[in-house]
Amino acid sequence: MCGRYSFTQVAEAIADKFQVKEVPEISPRYNIAPTQQIATVLVNSESSERQFKMLRWGLIPSWAKDAKMGAKLINARGETVAEKPAFRAAFKKRRCLILADGFYEWHTQDGEKQPFYFRLENGEPFAFAGLWEHWEKGEGESIESCTIITTEANELMRPVHDRMPVIIDSKNYEQWLDPEVKKTELLQSLLQPYPTEEMTAFPVSTKVNSPKNDRPECIQPI
């Protein structure tokens, strides 16, 4: 699964990397947790252009009776995402990029949990494969939310955990975001483990265990 990650990029870098025209200044985040507002890129249904948008992490299906359901849907398995009732509508027409530059996973040994930080070898920002949804309750409450798709772990990840978030190759951003692309087989072919040789990982401080700690020390090797 993916339950914690970082995104520390400035607006100019975001606009350049993800080809978005308008990006607000956002604060660097070193320990992003579920139910928080997170940076995404999606296609605007009216202009058909890429749009930067902050969404709540934890997808709330449009048919959900309660927004609390989103806390249980922070991840979606790539192998079944096209079939699950909570995700299949979004998978067809509401796909997004969830912006990141690293993520955490915990390895348990002798009863102790050691956090590890995973990022690209070149240190550049990247995007998780995401889905987003619009939810309303009556006239007073409206939430736009999202989930991160996961897949089987690559060789780097496997000693720590058997799952990892799907990192979309930049050459596939266009296909992934395009709501006109609907073929399940094509879309699922993009949901592969990221190449091991292009990633690196190292242990970090247990300070990351608490979402209250959102500081640069979280991503420093120990």
UniProtKB/TrEMBL annotation:
Pfam families: SRAP (PF02586). GO terms for molecular function: hydrolase activity. The keyword tRNA-binding does not apply. Keywords: Covalent protein-DNA linkage, DNA damage, DNA-binding, Hydrolase, Lyase, Protease. Its EC number is 3.4.-.-. InterPro entries: SRAP, SRAP-like. PANTHER family: ABASIC SITE PROCESSING PROTEIN HMCES (PTHR13604:SF0), DC12-RELATED (PTHR13604). Belongs to the SOS response-associated peptidase family. This is Abasic site processing protein. It comes from Floridaenema evergladense BLCC-F167.
